[in-house]
Amino acid sequence: MTGRPFSPRQAVRLPRVALLGAALAMAAAGCAPSGYYRSTSSSLDSLLSLQAQQQRKIAALEQEISATREQVQASRASSDTRLSELNGRMDMLQGKLEESGLRFTQLAQKVEAVKRMAADSARTTRDSTSAVMDPDEAFRAASSDYAAGRYPLARSALTEYLNRYPDTEVSDDAQYLIGESAYNTGDFRGAIEAYRKVVENYQQGDMVPKALLKAGMASARIKDYPASKRYYQLVIQRYPKSDEARLARERLLEAKKVQ
């Protein structure tokens, strides 16, 4: 290859161009001092390390979420099973309760039937016995219900006694006990009627003072205070020295204090 000969200026310029090119190449290649490279490399390593840590944390969190989801699903399934079991038990208990209620109702009906049978039997026995008893025995049989606190039965039996034996020595006692049976069951009007029959039908009997006093007490219980006062005054007027008269005076004094 032939060419034009180099001049000395050109020979001098070549090294300068080469040096300039090398410098430009170094600049273009990002050449810089070594301290800068070390700092940049360290920062990059730190970023990569931080990224790796974050990725590990994310992976651990995802595992925890997955485990929690599985636990929740398992717990829900267990709760559903438990709820189903409880519902089954409740249905079973409800069935047993209804069965027990039915049995109780049937038992109560049987008890009532037995009570009615016993009452009918006692009434039949009493009626058949009264037919052959003398008056005193019949009265003792009728008044035994009163002594035992069976006031409704006593009231019925004593009424039957008076229907059979209206004029015996104890007929006034029977009539008075009818009033007492009514009084003890809260039938105060029925008691007043029975006590009045003692006064009207057995005027010479020894039960009249008691009947008048109790008629006054029964009248007070239904708040018929004028009638109550009249009965008390009758006791005091007719039987002034009796215990019933003393009690009647006390009742009148109590009534005045209330008024």
UniProtKB/TrEMBL annotation:
Residues 1-27 form the signal peptide. SMART domains: TPR. InterPro entries: CpoB, CpoB_C, TPR-like_helical_dom_sf, TPR_rpt. Residues 44-78 form a coiled coil. Pfam families: TPR_16 (PF13432), TPR_6 (PF13174). It comes from the Bacteria. One of its GO terms (biological process) is cell division. Keywords: Coiled coil, Signal. NCBIfam families: tol_pal_ybgF. This is Tol-pal system protein YbgF. The gene is ybgF.
